[in-house]
Q: What sequence folds into this?
């Protein structure tokens, strides 16, 4: 799996529409995701102006599939 690069640019707010995960809870543990043509970005919804991590679409697919399957 490709590792995210340190210092990778945060996606522009105007370019991506952030969506909150349907698995987020009411206790503030929320994740948001935004998908672009080449990158998928993740951020903490409590810190919408804070850092985000961006990875290529294949890396995001593998990461999310492993979460669904319960793999670390």
A:
């Amino acid at each position: 799996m490709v590792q995210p690069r340190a210092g990778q640019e945060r996606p522009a707010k105007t370019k991506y529409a952030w969506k909150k995960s349907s698995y987020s809870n009411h206790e503030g543990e929320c994740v948001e995701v935004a998908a672009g043509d080449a990158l998928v970005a993740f951020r903490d919804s409590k810190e919408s102006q804070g850092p985000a991590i961006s990875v290529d679409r294949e890396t995001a697919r593998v990461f999310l599939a492993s979460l669904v399957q319960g793999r670390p």
